[in-house]
Design brief:
The chain is an alpha+beta fold. It contains three helices and six strands; from the N terminus they run αββαββββα. The protein has one domain: TATA-Binding Protein. Strands 1, 2, 3, 4, 5 and 6 form a six-stranded antiparallel sheet that branches. This is DUF1499 domain-containing protein.
Length: 129
């Protein structure tokens, strides 16, 4: 993580992915999996590979997974949403926000990168053409 990301993290306590983010690491990810299977893979990754992440709630109907991440920097609430794009294609977005008034020193950004790195090991990421 860069020094600039840490400095911005002094006051920013929230990070999210979206379709047209200026940071390529924070763009929506597309996978060649149906939504229901992606929800299961996301839960499997969180429970099996991400230490300190605890699944609070899973809504399979809406494709939302609510996670709590405890860390020495504080507790972060993370919402992962899996969207149905087509029968064999889904998209994943994530929002991470720290509880409290101070920034998170870029920890939310690092959590998003760690999550996608773990998810990419078990799900087929769609390559851009």
């Amino acid at each position: 993580m860069s020094i600039g990301r840490t400095i911005v993290g002094l006051w920013r306590s929230r990070e999210e992915t979206r379709e047209h983010h200026r940071d390529p690491n924070l763009r929506t990810r597309y996978y060649r999996e149906p939504r229901d299977r992606m929800v299961e893979k996301v839960v499997e990754v969180i429970r099996g590979q991400l230490r300190g992440w605890h699944v609070v709630h899973v809504s399979r109907d809406h494709g939302e997974i609510v996670v709590e991440r405890r860390h020495w920097l504080g507790t972060r609430d993370i919402t992962i949403t899996v969207y149905h794009v087509s029968p064999m294609r889904s998209a994943v977005d994530i929002v991470s926000s720290k509880r409290g008034s101070f920034g998170d020193l870029g920890a939310s950004y690092a959590d998003i990168l760690a999550f996608f790195q773990a998810l990419n090991r078990v799900a087929q990421l769609e390559q851009k053409s």
